[in-house]
Structures are given as C-alpha cells and as structure tokens.
UniProtKB/TrEMBL annotation:
Keywords, sorted A to Z: Transcription, Transcription regulation
Domain named HTH araC/xylS-type: residues: 1-49
Protein name: Helix-turn-helix domain-containing protein
UniProt KW Transcription keyword: yes
Organism: Dyadobacter subterraneus
Keyword set includes Transcription: yes
Pfam (any one): HTH_18
Length: 49
C-alpha cells in the first residue's frame, strides 16, 4: 500500500471523527478491512482503529 495513502489515513484518523470506512475510500483504498489490517501490522500501530 502506498506510504502517502497510509500517512494521510493516519492523519485523518487522528484529526477527525470520520469512520475508518470513510477514510479508506477517501484515500483510495477500496476495503476498510485492508486498511485496518495494514495498520495493525505496522510496528508503531495505534489500537485506536
């Protein structure tokens, strides 16, 4: 997954009240589950998702 998309998604998660499904589609990721799984595999992931 593109690093810029992940960074944008991370910022939106931290700064907005948007749901992960909204953020996933906004940054161009078709599956919210895919975004959540990707974050959970990162070494510095947040449990907020």
């Amino acid at each position: 997954m593109n690093q810029k998309r992940l960074e944008k998604a991370r910022n939106l998660l931290a700064e907005t009240d948007m749901r992960i499904s909204e953020i996933a589609y906004l940054v161009g990721i078709e599956s919210p589950r895919n975004l959540a799984n990707t974050f959970s595999r990162l070494p510095d992931h947040s449990n907020r998702i």
